[in-house]
Amino acid sequence: MSDNVPVIAIDGPSGSGKGTLASALAERLGWHLLDSGALYRIVAAVAIARGITLDHESELAAMAEGLDISFKEQKVIVDGEDLTDLIRTEGATSLSSEVAALAGVRAAILTMQREMRRVPGLVADGRDMGTVVFPSAELKIFLDADAETRAQRRYNQLKNKGLSVNLPALLDAIKKRDERDIRRAVSPLKAAGDAIIIDSTAMTIVEVVAEVYAEVVARRLAEGT
Ligand code: DC
Question: Which of 43, 54, 95, 97 to mutate to test the pocket of ligand 1 (most atoms within 8 A of CB)?
Fold first, then answer.
């Protein structure tokens, strides 16, 4: 980990397109990628599996600290087990924003996240990348979109996977999760003062990537850009 290694911090609510933006940028630049939401999802999925409930904050924090997590070829491996699909289930998704409100869990995950700042650079995607985890990031993006558009995008994604989905229920779940992420006391979802705010409601992901990439070039953040 080094403060000299450049970081692009991408924050925003779920469904804003930040995950797609982050992976497109990381691939284009040849940088590492941190999907910090996956870490909270892992804590939630393992908590469910081990029967640890939300009222046991120190137990959850100790559990989070003890996990051996690796991201290999799009797979999420935890203590040798493939949890890629499990962390995307509705149960883990919903509990993830609840465990994310616990200061002990956030502290346990903080070090893991900072250790991912490695050469040649890191693209970090989450809710508090620019405000708390990497306040010295060279470029901070806050990607937003209205809730209806985000729910519709999620609906299309799930539909394409052949799953049966209900749009009003998705919208309701997204609003509840936003509310929890914005209102929590520790590291709430908010734009850093020096973030560039992009509203992707009326934009395609290609347009969003092009806008952010132009910023990377203008700031001479990566070699060869
Ligand atoms: O980005 P995501 O939907 O995979 O994130 C899952 C949950 O984790 C989300 O509801 C809020 C939480 N989270 C967080 O609190 N801080 C982050 N940096 C990333 C995610």
Answer: 97
Domain count, the chain: 1
The pLDDT tens digits for 91-139 are 999 899 899 999 999 999 999 999 999 999 999 999 999 999 999 999 9
| Containing structural domain, residue 16 | 7-214
Separation in Å, CA 33 to CA 22, 94, 111, 152, 166: 7, 23, 16, 26, 31
Q: Is the CB of 13 under 6 A from ligand 1?
A: no
For a substitution probing ligand 1, which of 36, 154, 186, 190 has the most ligand atoms within 8 Å of its CB? 36
CATH number, domain of 180, equals 3.40.50.300
The answer to the question of residue 32 being in a domain is yes
How much is the pTM?
0.93
- Best residue for ligand 1 mutational test, from 20, 127, 174 (most atoms within 8 Å of Cβ): 127
How far is residue 161's CA from residue 182's CA, in Å, rounded to a whole number?
A: 29
Confirm or reject: Cβ of 134 under 6 Å from ligand 1: no
Residue 172 lies in a domain: yes
Percent of the chain that is helix, strand, coil (3-state, to 5): 50, 15, 35
Residue ranges in the chain whose pLDDT is less than 50: none
